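Lab notes, practical 5.
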Amino acid sequence: MTRDRKDKNRRKSKNVRSDIVRRKERPFKRELAPESSAQIDSSKPNSAQTKSVERLLQGIGTPEPAPLVPDAFQIEALEAIETQDVLVTAPTGSGKTWIAREEIRRLLAAGKRAWYTTPLKALTNSKYTEFSQEFGAENVGILTGDRKVNHAAPLIVGTTEIYRNQLFDALRSGEQVSTDFVILDEAHYMADEERGHVWEEAIILSPPRIRLLLLSATIGNAEEFAAWIGEVRGTNVRVINRAGSRPVELRAAFLAPNTQLFPLFDESGIKMNRAIEQFAQEENRFERRRRY
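Output from the prediction step:
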């Protein structure tokens, strides 16, 4: 009992001394550490930035509804696709998919079948949704590496690899691929170093009875490409070249963490907007101060 009392008194005395030492070492109130994340600058943009953003957004909006009037190149492609393979090269947003959609509509009405191929699963899923709404879900199927829906539908949307694989399967089994028309969207992927052979094989192995419609915005040697298609398939290939700029203007901007919007380029449209560089420098200075 005596030993327990001594140990208790010793611990109590030690705690008292520790409290005295802590008070001497820290005679001030401890402050909270600063926030670890960057502070958001809530200041309003200056007048110059406001004007530049107004110029960036000028004219953007929803146009008034109006009847669709096809462009001359779209009509030319539709007329040619009835008897020939067709290669359409036109800027993004000019209406290449409209050509494919109208030909698909004609084929489905005649009881025929079509394939729409894309290089990306995301684009394939998007086109599947679009065509299901346009032609009815019962008439559209999708085939990708991880999705198989309504595979017996008259219109199949799938990746180019899946269509190529069906061609190989048809060769092994001695059967015919069940389609009358194939759209190869983003046909410039044939120049891709790793995947280009898929488009090459799909073109070579497609029987001449299957008409091809190739769509792309970035084929620079369209005539040479078409000549090769005609040589390996033994068909006539019409090139429809809609030259010129994008019908829907592309505008680029930088959205800063403080929610301010900066045009990516200056008024010349060539040089980078210096306001973005200045903003980045301010952010970097703040980050260095926060760390050290």
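Observations recorded by the TA: Strands lie at 85-89, 114-118, 140-143, 148-149, 155-159, 181-184, 211-216, 237-241, 253-255, 261-263. The chain has nine helices and ten strands.
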